[in-house]
Write a structure and sequence with these properties.
By secondary structure, the chain is of the alpha/beta class. Helix content is 26%, strand content 25%. The protein contains 8 helices and 18 strands. A hairpin with a 6-residue loop joins β9 and β10. α1 runs parallel beside α5. The longest helix is centred in the first third of the chain and has 25 residues. The structure holds glycine (GLY). The site of glycine (GLY) has 7 residues, from loops.
């Protein structure tokens, strides 16, 4: 049964939140529904936040017109902390590794809470090189991984093909990473929705139109949101978890507005042959002519090929060029894939942040938290995001591993930037 909103008569002050949460100072005079926690956005990050909050006894609601939408519907679901390592992202690596370590227990907890499997598969990954330049780049990445103490094994071309016989004969070498796995983001979403419903999370299927803020100066406080359908929600704490749209909610004061932008990714889905005809057993990735491509084989037979990375604003058009480039590069790695049925193409928007890492926890505006900016790692970071937000929503601190990703970390830079342009 969904948790009923706290019963607040019209024209009355909002009800006090549950024990252990901060009360809305100067709450709005009217509310159609009142909760301890309102989560704006029902993608995997919003859902895991809502689920974890509700599990801890907080009356929780999610506002989203389509809570099973979001970037995860397009994502391939690689849990690739090591193979997706980028220079300059060492701090993020620690969070990604913590998330990868948390995944098995998270998958089990979620399966128990929802009765659903999330397709968590300990398949490992292989990054391969097709020419001498790719090989040199991959060797350099391997050196970087080794300096950071990460586990990755260098293989020659024939060893790569022994592992994955469908790889092109031209593969010159590769990095085997047995600790990078996968989950199915669509199954993850379904499971999170079911877990939320079982935990009593209420769903308001409408877009959040405006953050409700009361008071002024140091007494200013977020106290919920108004939805596009006219519903006024009062909440002791509001979590902005709307992915790439998180910076667009009206009413959010400029000083705490999350600096996220949409980064488009196009993805293609093929169907592999049935059991008995192994096509690909683990995630394979490569950089082909400077663009990275990855192939994620699921137990269901789905083969996800991704992803483009395009800074084109809010555009989600699937283009002939995007699909062509993905298939062209994937074909160089696995020539046999042109025989496979093409079952779907899609495009989604990653929530990019200035340092490619998420923004988590309280903002400088009391009552407003962020859980956004996960960029390339939303599916991987789902468990640790849920844990981090649950900690702060129940009055605690961000866990140590999440502390470098505090939602407030860009506030100084923004003020400096605004000052320079004043
Ligand atoms: N992590 C894969 C991507 O963002 O495309």
């Amino acid at each position: 049964m969904p948790m009923q909103p706290r019963d607040t008569p019209p024209e009355e002050p909002a009800a006090a939140p549950a024990a252990g949460t901060a009360g809305p100072v100067g709450a709005p005079r009217t509310a159609d529904a009142t909760y301890d926690v309102l989560v704006v956005g029902g993608g995997v990050i919003g859902l895991v936040t809502a689920w974890q909050a509700a599990r801890r006894g907080l009356a929780t609601a999610v506002a989203d017109p389509a809570p099973d939408g979001g970037a995860a519907q397009v994502a391939a679901g690689m849990l690739a902390a090591v193979t997706e390592l980028h220079y300059g992202e060492e701090a993020l690596l620690a969070l990604n590794l913590a998330a990868a370590e948390r995944y098995p227990a998270f998958a089990a907890e979620l399966a128990e809470a929802s009765g659903r499997d999330i397709g968590y598969r300990r398949c490992g990954a292989l990054s391969v090189a097709l020419d001498a330049d790719d090989r040199a780049q991959l060797r350099e990445l391997h050196g970087f991984q080794q300096r950071l103490g990460l586990s990755a094994e260098w293989l020659g071309g024939s060893e790569c093909r022994r592992l994955e016989p469908m790889l092109a004969p031209g593969v010159r070498g590769g990095l085997r990473v047995d600790g990078d796995h996968q989950t199915d983001p669509r199954l993850l979403t379904v499971a999170l929705l079911a877990a939320c419903e079982r935990a009593g999370v209420a769903f308001h299927r409408s877009l959040a139109a405006r953050l409700r803020v009361t008071g002024s100066g140091t007494a200013e406080r977020a106290v919920g949101a108004e939805l596009a359908d006219g519903t006024r929600i009062a909440a002791g704490q509001t979590v902005l978890a709307a992915g790439s749209r998180s910076g667009r909610l009206a009413g959010v004061p400029e000083a705490v507005r999350p600096p996220v932008r949409p980064v488009k990714g196009q993805v293609v889905r093929l169907r592999m042959p049935g059991a008995g005809t192994p096509f690909l057993s683990r995630t394979v990735r490569a950089v082909v002519r400077g663009s990275s491509v990855y192939l994620v084989p699921r137990e269901s037979g789905e083969l996800v090929i991704g992803a483009t990375s395009e800074e084109l604003g809010w555009d989600t058009t699937v283009t002939a060029g995007g699909v062509y480039e993905l298939l062209r590069d994937a074909h160089e790695l696995l020539p046999g894939l042109t025989e496979l049925p093409l079952v779907e193409t899609g495009a989604g928007l990653r929530p990019g942040s200035p340092d490619n890492a998420p923004l988590l926890g309280p903002t400088a505006l009391p009552g407003l938290h962020l859980a956004t900016g996960h960029y390339r790692n939303g599916v991987l970071l789902t468990p640790v995001t849920g844990d981090a937000l649950a900690a702060v929503l129940t009055g605690g601190e961000l866990p140590d591993v999440a502390r470098p990703f505090a939602a407030t970390r860009f506030a100084g830079a923004r003020q400096h930037h605004e000052g320079r342009h004043a």
